[in-house]
Structure formats: C-alpha cells, structure tokens
Amino acid sequence: MHFYKILFITLIATALLTLDGCSQSNFDSDEMKKHAERLKEISSFQYPLENYFPETPVTDEDPPTTERGELHHAAEDSYASAGTPVCAIGDGIISYSGKRPGYGWLVIIDHPVENVYSLYGHLSTSRWKKGSGKVKKGELIGYLGDPGECYTMRSHIHFGLRMGQRADYPSWGWEEARWTAGYTNSRPELLGWFCPSQIIGQTDSIRTWHKYIQKREVIVNERSLHASDFKITSGRYNEKEDLDQIIRKEFCEDYRLADWNDISTLSKNIEEWADSVGFVESGEENALLISNDGYRIWLGRQYFISRFNHSKPEHFLEHNSIDSNFVCLGSWYGLNKHILAVKK
Ligand SMILES: [Zn+2]
Q1: How far is the CA of 102 from the centre of ligand 1 (A)?
Q2: Are strands 288-289 and 336-343 parallel, antiparallel or unpaired?
Q3: Peptide bond before 63: cis, by omega within 30 degrees of 0?
Q4: Buried (b) or exposed (e) across 296-335, using 16+ Cβ within 10 A?
Q5: Residue 25 host element (H or E)
Q6: DSSP 3-state of 339
Q7: Is 188 helix (H, G, I), strand (E, B) or coil?
Q8: pLDDT tens across 157-182, in order?
C-alpha cells in the first residue's frame, strides 16, 4: 500500500513537472536538436503516405513568410488525391481520433519509446478510419479526405511530429501550445515541433525535388522558336526525378525543360510543330512533362501537355489550350512521362 502511495505521488510530481515544462514552452533549440539527432539514429519511422513529398515545410524562419501571413506552419503538407491511404509512421498508441474544426478528421499517435507524437490532419470523415488502440508501423489509420470535408483547397496531409506525448500539452487554452496546433505564433521548434522529413530520412531526394518545384528563371516568351528547337526525351521519367539533369544527359547543356510560354509562341503552327517534333495524339497517355510560367508544380500536381486534336475528353480540366484544344495544358500527380526540352 505504502509503495503505491509513493509511486502515485511520484507520478503526479512527474506529470506536474512535465506540464509545467511544456506550458512554459521550454524547448530550446539545443534540446530539440539533440532529440532530433537521437531520433534520426534510432528512427523506426516511415512516412505516412506512400509518395510523401512535403511541399509546404515547417516554418523555420522568424518572422515567417507563409501564405498565412504572421503565422508559422507547425507541420509538413504533402498533396495527394482524396482516398489516398494514410499509415501510422511507427509503433504507438492512438491517443486521439476524431473530428476537429479546421482538420476534418484528426488522428494523433503517441510513440512512447521515441517520446514523440505524430499528428495526421485533413483525413476523411466519411471513409473508414481507426478510432483507438495500438498501431504498428505502416498500419492503415485512415484516408485523405475530399477538400469539402477537410477545410482544404486541395486534398493533402498536414503531418506533424512533436516532442513528448499528447497528454503533455493542453487540449484547450493557449492556442499555440495545444496538441492540435496547426499554425503557431512562435517558431514551431520552440514549441516542440520537429521537421518530420529531416528525421524520417530520404531528406536528400526531397530537397532535390523541392529545388525543382520552385520557380525557374524567368521564361522569355518573346523569342521566336522553331520546331527544330524542341526535343522529346526517348525515355519516360518520373516527375520527382531531376528533369534538368535528365535533359542534359539525353541532349546537352544547351537544352532545358520546355515551358508553356515556349509552346504558346507557336500557336499558329501548332499542328506542324507537333508532327515534326514527334508529339503524337492519344491524349493523356502520351503527355509530355513541361513547366508553366516557370513553375513545374501546381498544388502538388506536375504540369504536362496533351495532344487532343481538338477533341478533349469531358473529364479533362485544362489550365490552358492552344488552337481550340489541339494541345492542352493539364496537371496531375505521380506522372511517368517523356519530357519536352527546348533550346536555351
Ligand atoms: Zn498544413
């Protein structure tokens, strides 16, 4: 009896200390860095999506330069279509699974061994989801939701990784300390949030890809181009590869990824151009990867062009078109296509 009494007092004291530590938000950068290093060494985690490419990172600068103005983004956003399976990143216990304003369905998993919790936001409220209990690494916990049910413009996961367990943080009150906090006033690092992809690996490939979704140099669209200035790669490549490097390898330094602006200059001779460059009809199947006004990606989707010879399928939502849908500009996820290159 006496033993349990002491244990109980010890537990309460520990809980109070932990709560006190968190409410003060004493996550100094050194402590976070050390914990991050340790996590990287022992990491038994995987990404929550099969194709995880966080386009919106955790804000690390102060003041932030996010689309949400003054606020810092406390997690990473990776875009994928609604219905994409979401998995537990590691062994743990579901400490929350429910509907939350701003999130749609939200799942939180405590990982006691690593002393972190993972947060999965914008899951589908209407599809199946795991409600409680233990989970194994890679176990299905739910699906990405449709924008309408998740308060998003495009389906994506808002994926956070935070020091401690869910119970270490308040469920209400001080907004940015809450265990559900998606955006914060202070640097997320000071509140215990990690940059997940820096701990879960594949960081290099993600950085490479990041570099290529940023805006390219200004595309000059006044120059006059000829069909002979364009080339199509012989191989098919995944959008996540380094397209410029591939172009240099297949052709030479004088070529770069073609842009919609380059093709627009050919509007009068588009059919002649398509025939001579070898851009055949059969719509989405023979699409070519390009950029649009310097950007390769639109909300997680890679730009491409398709030749429809004026008969565009009903379901195809084009961003733009030349000569009444002879050639259309589209965007989609996970493409494996030939690349259109142009002389610099
Ligand atoms: Zn987010």
Answers
A1: 10
A2: parallel
A3: yes
A4: bbbebbbbbbbbbeeebeeeeeeeebbeebbbbbbbbbeb
A5: none
A6: strand
A7: helix
A8: 999 999 999 999 988 777 678 999 99
